[in-house]
Amino acid sequence: MTNLGVLYGLGVGPGDPELITVKAFRVIQESSVIAYPKKLKGSKSYAHRIVDVYINPEEKDMLGLVFPMTKDEAVLEREWTKSVALVYEKLQQGKDVAFVTEGDPLLYSTFIHMMKLMQEKHPEVEIRTVPGISSFNGSASRLGIALADGDDRVAIIPAHDNYEAMREAIESHDAVVFIKVAKVIDLMLEVLRDLDLLDKASVVTKVTSDEEIIWDVRELDGVDLEYLTLMVVRK
To answer: Which Pfam families match (predicted)?
Structure first.
């Protein structure tokens, strides 16, 4: 029987291709299969575009996997089962698979569910992760904001439409990074105004990438923001 390949969860950073680690670069070069989230419409995923400069698709087995943005459990189960099976098929052939994900593979990443399902269905598979620079680090750098100093308390929180919870998060921390902020930007602006902290907030889309936008927070009311947008509140 062919020895199984290794499944790598590869953090490729927040957007700038130069922000991948030397180790991530090496694993990309050495892995014969590059797995990446594939958009249904065929355009390249964010993680795929980050590593594009380092990959010759003619030399690699490019494995696009569909992860639908839905809460339909039946659809999710079907597509995730299919994706795990496709990856396992490559591993059975003795090929190492590098699953690329923006940011870090163990922090709000698609790879986390892939890892759990693979461990559940095929516990014999060896799984390794390569940490990556997160969008939080990238945002702090681009904005020139120190997220924590001394005994400061920092939180990373998915923004949602609960006014009291969002307000409490800001009040009880020195700095908060809100991810998934696009869908609730108006509520977040309301919280900031009520706390008189509008001047302490920054909003960035696709940080460090060539599509990066640093927004004027005072001009965001009603703006339709892209999914890869976060807000930093530093008191």
So the answer is: TP_methylase (PF00590)
